[in-house]
Amino acid sequence: MLRVAPLDQGATGVEARSSQAVPPREEAVRALQEGGFPLGLLDQIDLQVQEARANGEDALATTLKKCMIQMHPDRNPGREEVVPIFKYLRRLRVEQNLFKRGRMEESSKKSVLSKLRKKQRRVSAEP
Question: Each residue of 23-35: pLDDT tens digit?
Answer without folding.
Answer: 888 888 888 888 8
